[in-house]
Amino acid sequence: MAFVGCGYLGSTYAACFAELGYEVVGMDVSVEKVAKLSQGVLPFHEPGLEALLKRNIDSGRLRFTTSVEEIAEFADVHFICVGTPQRPDSDGADLSYVEAAVTELAPHLSRKALIVGKSTVPVGTATWVEELVARHAPPEAGIEVAWSPEFLQEGFAVEDVLRPNRVVFGVNSDWARGMLYAVHKGVFELAAAEDRQVPVVACDFATAELVKVAANAFLATKISFINAMADLCDTTGGDVTLLARAIGYDDRIGPKFLRAGVGFGGGCLPKDIRAFVARAEELGVGDSLRFLGEVDRINARRRTKVVTMAAEMCGRVSGPAGPDLSGLKIALLGVTFKANSDDVRDSPALSVARKLMRAGAVVTAYDPEGMATAKDVVPDVIYAKNIPEAVEGADLVCVLTAWEEFRHTDPAALTGLVDHARVIDGTNSLDPVLWTGAGWKYRGMGRPAHG
User: Fold this and answer.
1) pTM of this prediction?
2) Are 110 and 81 in contact (CB under 8 A)?
3) Which of 48, 75, 293, 443 is the residue whose CA sits 20 to 30 A from 239?
4) How distant, in Å, are the alpha carbons of 237, 309, 346 from that of 413?
5) H helix count then E strand count, the chain
6) Which residues are paired to 64 by β-bridges?
7) Looking at 16, 81, 233, 268, which residue is catalytic?
């Protein structure tokens, strides 16, 4: 099998399927990326993946190339794993990378093969890809198309590929369905060996395309819901962590994605829900997804909320242009959009950093994995080598990514380093009793003030 596009998605799947015993080639147009991957070097951070990459390159089951002709000759199944970013001129998804991948591959396919989309796309894309294949592939080859969306969580991607909680096969023929079962045989065999089941949803193209965006829209809605409840708790004196625990005991709701904080970010949820709404508008059913616009706005307001809290804790008054934080040194712990990742795309932490600097603050930051990429995005932040260096002389500390390193930090060891022992827990992952006991004034998101 071949994976076209060796970014986060394609390289993760390529390494994991090689681990399952398949012969795999990853193809990417970037010579630099292919060179790194061929040497067993990941261009991003994902726990456990680099070891799989190196092991399977060494075994000979996995290799990388820039040659479309090579993968066309080699593979029976071609997974399209290219990016679908937000278009610069609208909220819709940019499908130019999908189009380029398909139109460059199809003319070189000389025998029957299956092109499988894994990228997150607007509903209707698979049918359009079929039309592209019909125009560009040799008719006698009988190339077919299927769609099998990915459900990777950054920080847990290896497990998500090897031990998925479900797989979805969007197909138009029995042959395509059989091929998808064949390429997932290793996944099913591993599940059987571990006495697990992997549910399979075999469906039409439209359903397969909608599964991923519908799942992301639901998760985003759940996150924004609990953040809206945090605002109510701030106003009424409630504690959103206890509220989330109480409603999470209801099996119809469940406890996951009910941690209030600075909101969601990353390369998927924000752009996917916007593209979902844009596609619904194109199809004439925009009213049905209009609530997702408010989900997005609630999420954006969480970032401004941190700046407002910073002004309140530091005794600064907000004027018509917002708070004046000039002369303050504020330390940020965390720059990635989530823990166990170096991804800073649409990171709430970096958005807060920009807002704090615009308000006049000097911002110092530390993150275990994300600072190299963050420097390219927000170069005006002062990046520290460790937590003590980041917080030294700070008037306020903001914890904005839920790294275990931050949760296990001893607040007493930091008290003597800061100018003022004040902390905003933007992840609601710290222990307020522990921090206030060490002399800190603590504010969480939707939690009563301590200290």
Assistant:
1) 0.93
2) no
3) 293
4) 30, 24, 32
5) 19, 16
6) 26
7) 268
